[in-house]
Amino acid sequence: IPDAAGCVTTGKLKVGRVMDAKIFGQMNEADAKFIRCAAEVSLAITGTSMRVVFDCPVPDGMTLQAPNAPWWGDGVAFTIRRSERDPAIYWFVAGASGATECGRFIIGGDKDPAWRSGSRIDVSTNATAYRVTMDIPLVDAFGKVPAAGDAFGVNFKRRGPTAGGPSSWAVNGGSFNAGEEVFGVLVLGGSQPYFERRFAAFEPRCRDLSNDGPSREAVIRVARPVKQAIAEHGADPKSFGSLERMFGQFDRALVAI
């Protein structure tokens, strides 16, 4: 999701492969009905709060498994890692029964008993689908009201019999183990300010390296195409991955000067 300034959607979550019932170790594609009924998620930010909505179709002929427990049966989760330096994952979990839980889990450890969330989570169901609406204060999600260009690790997840197993946005399948997680990147306010801020963070290194003529020319040579690419493609969501790779090359080029 490159831009959460308005309302954005994930498209269908990726449904994981399933273990073959007869051949040990063989993984097969999930049944087509689960791929067709994969959940979709929307996210919108207004003022100091964020609304995350999961729409979860139920395949024909199936009924929800909804025990009164957020981590079992059919349900969803929104997870956040604020930064690579933060040793915690923030979970916002709801079961189709309406049972919910919000928690801060230390990576490789346990749930933080002191952390509390002001979030509100509502669940509605009918014969063909269920919807989970999460209203989350931005300070709960991100530790602050974010500025344009701030980036965070996030994932959107669904589980249970009507999902055909685990599915997620960031990776095929995924896990509902609070200690294991893979994240996609959520950039708030658009990718253009994100890349402009990333380039600005390199500028002190560029100045330090530009202390003589040959070094200055080398810095200009490697920095110019990055700055030009940001100006031309920074706002294009389809260019996000290629620009991220360009920054990796830029970093290595500066090390070599």
What does this entry look like structurally?
The chain is an alpha+beta fold and 257 residues long. Helix content is 26%, strand content 31%. It contains five helices and 14 strands. The strands form three sheets. Strands 2, 7, 8, 9, 12, 13 and 14 form a seven-stranded antiparallel beta sheet that branches. Strand 10 and strand 11 form a beta hairpin.
Helices and strands in order:
Blueprint: E1 7-12, E2 14-15, E3 18-19, E4 27-28, H1 32-36, E5 40-46, E6 49-57, E7 75-81, E8 88-95, E9 100-106, E10 120-125, E11 129-137, H2 138-142, E12 151-159, E13 167-168, E14 184-187, H3 191-209, H4 213-233, H5 240-256
Antiparallel strand pairs: 1-5, 2-13, 3-4, 5-6, 6-11, 7-8, 7-12, 8-9, 10-11, 12-13, 12-14
Helix pairs in contact: 3-4, 3-5, 4-5
How helical, in percent, are the residues?
25-40%
Total beta strand runs: 14
The poorly predicted ranges are 1-5
Overall shape: it is elongated
In percent terms, what proportion of residues is strand?
25-35%
Number of separate helices: 5
Distance from first to last alpha carbon: 35 Å
Mean pLDDT: 87
State the major sheet.
Answer: 7 strands, antiparallel
Structural class determined from secondary elements: alpha+beta
Q: What order do the helices and strands follow?
A: EEEEHEEEEEEEHEEEHHH
| Rg of Cα set | 21 Å
Please tag this protein with its features.
single chain; 257 residues; alpha+beta; 7-stranded antiparallel β-sheet; 5-stranded antiparallel β-sheet; 5 helices; elongated; disordered N terminus
Concise summary:
This protein has 257 residues and is an alpha+beta fold. It contains 5 helices and 14 strands. The longest helix is centred in the C-terminal third of the chain and has 21 residues, at 213-233.
